[in-house]
Design a protein that fits this description.
disordered N terminus; 61% helix; single chain; globular; 9 helices
């Protein structure tokens, strides 16, 4: 169960497919692309499920798919596979190699999760504690990205 009373319907395989789509879009744009355009292109290639297409019950008008894509790109940033700067997403050389090496979405998801955990273990104690808090830095990161894009 999720905090919003919904059963989580986004599987590890699905998040791996989303990452593969993000990487494929960015491979076609070596100089990077605005996040909102990446998300639009991912949606075109990998249509959202009815669950992903729906809004969050607590925030009508905020579609799950966009947030799911944004949230699932945090680990690749920490792994060094993706750079986000002022609303622009750029795939790194390591990200290109990972996309080629991990053709299976579950394998890609497992590897990026493993690298995220390595990054997390190397964070100062205070940062690790805040990563476990209810007000997730991942949510803050996503909100900051969106604000930078609109600015």
């Amino acid at each position: 169960m999720r905090g919003d009373g919904q059963v989580a319907e986004v599987t590890r395989k699905r998040t791996g497919e989303i990452l593969q789509a993000v990487f494929a879009v960015l491979e076609e744009h070596p100089d990077g692309l605005q996040a909102r355009r990446v998300i639009q292109e991912v949606e075109r290639r990998l249509p959202p499920t009815p669950f992903e297409q729906s809004d969050y019950p607590s925030t009508p008008g905020v579609r799950r798919f966009d947030k799911i894509v944004r949230f699932n790109t945090i680990a690749p940033v920490k792994a060094g596979w993706l750079v986000k700067s002022k609303g622009q997403w750029i795939l790194t050389e390591e990200g290109r190699l990972a996309a080629k090496r991990f053709q299976d979405p579950l394998e890609l998801r497992r590897e990026v999760s493993r690298l995220y955990q390595v990054w997390r273990r190397n964070q100062p104690e205070e940062a690790s504690a805040s990563l476990d808090s209810a007000s997730s830095p991942a949510s803050a990161t996503s909100a900051l990205e969106e604000a930078e894009e609109t600015a």
